[in-house]
Design a protein that fits this description.
This protein has 367 residues and is of the alpha/beta class. It contains 13 helices and five strands.
Length: 367
């Protein structure tokens, strides 16, 4: 008698659950349609990409990232849930209400899509190309062989009380120091997240160059850096003690008076590409503007996903809406390594000091 009544109750609960799922499906589909199918403007506002780019992302996550359709949960909805969290930094319970899904379902979506995005790093990271000798871009033509620019950016994270001293930056924020390298088109070619906020930029760069599978800089090529780094093989920095920042070269300021000043002026105008890349990245993904409530390892993985998706959007969309918004506000890759010799240390050298002097003299003679 007891066993029969138990089975009967189970059947009633199961039928109620099925009716609940069926009843919610039209609402879930209507919400998804509103997010990604109505207009490009709505899709960009909610997911930070237009409808065509979103469709291509779903296709690549399914075809090459290993993302699969779940029970009553398609590829599009999983991707939309993940992107809405990155774009607006919504908490789990808010997203579950918006998409009419349980908190467990939302959590699984985040981890499944995150794993799929990170598995595509070799596709999504850009491959840098050195500035050619016949370059006509006025910002870059002085820096023959330059691959782009690099810098570190601090991103706030949430850590345990025991780890807070290590993650506290010089500005007092609890953050991770993320090294990023970008090309001339503001696409990232390498990133190294996870270092504590107390770590210096030069220390993070030395780790990136020395670690296996780290930053590869072919001999004779280089990246533009600021004075937080050493002027060494593969990394060209400005002159110290000479005005450098863009605001010091704005309207109403004095023209360059010597070779060092003109070098610093053109160096900062070219290196500003990495600062703009950081600005667009943080403008696009709200989760990077404040600490999230995930475990620290998951936070680091989410940071990596933001960088990779930034590259994907810039490749697929002719006009980047985040860059336009930034202007309105503020006016590692698999490759063939055969036969290439890379920079393996970051130490000051007279050779690179002489190179900097020769570039500065050429700029001055053509000024």
């Amino acid at each position: 008698m007891y066993a029969g009544s138990t089975r009967q109750r189970r059947r009633v609960v199961e039928r109620a659950r099925r009716r609940s799922v069926i009843r919610k499906m039209p609402i879930q589909l209507k919400n998804l349609d509103r997010l990604v199918h109505w207009t490009d403007a709505a899709c960009i506002a909610n997911l930070r990409m237009d409808r065509n780019t979103f469709a291509r992302l779903c296709r690549i996550l399914s075809g090459r990232g290993g993302l699969t359709i779940k029970k009553c949960l398609g590829i599009e909805e999983q991707t939309a849930i993940f992107l809405s969290i990155l774009a607006h930094h919504k908490k789990n319970r808010v997203v579950s209400q918006n998409f009419w899904r349980s908190g467990g379902t939302v959590s699984r979506c985040v981890h499944n899509v995150l794993a799929a995005v990170l598995s595509l790093h070799s596709i999504l990271l850009s491959k840098p190309k050195p500035v050619p000798n016949d370059c006509t871009d006025y910002r870059w033509k002085w820096f023959k062989g330059c691959l782009g620019a690099l810098d570190g950016t601090h991103i706030n994270v949430l850590v345990s009380n025991e780890d807070k001293p290590r993650y506290r930056s010089r500005k007092g924020q609890i953050s991770t120091n993320t090294l990023a390298v970008c090309d001339r088109n503001m696409q990232f070619v390498y990133l190294l997240p996870g270092w504590e906020g107390s770590a210096g930029d030069s220390r993070v760069l030395r780790d990136a160059v020395s670690r296996e599978g780290g930053l590869k800089v072919p001999q004779g090529c280089y990246y533009l850096c600021d004075n937080a780094y050493a002027n060494s093989s593969g990394f060209l920095t400005p002159y110290k003690g000479v005005r450098y920042h863009l605001k010091e070269w704005g309207p109403g300021t004095e023209m360059p008076q010597n070779t060092k000043e003109i070098f610093n002026m053109r160096h900062t105008k070219a290196r500003n590409v990495i600062e703009r890349a950081f600005g667009v990245l943080k403008m696009r993904w709200g989760i990077l503007r404040s600490a999230s409530f995930y475990p620290i390892k998951t936070q680091i993985r989410l940071i990596m996903a933001c960088f990779l998706l930034h590259n994907f959007i810039r490749r697929e969309m002719e006009i980047d809406p985040a860059e336009i918004e930034l202007d309105g506000v503020s006016t590692a890759v698999e490759e063939d390594n055969i036969g290439l010799d890379y920079v393996d240390c970051v130490e000051p050298s007279s050779e690179w000091t002489n190179l900097r002097d020769s570039i500065a003299l050429d700029m001055w003679n053509n000024f």
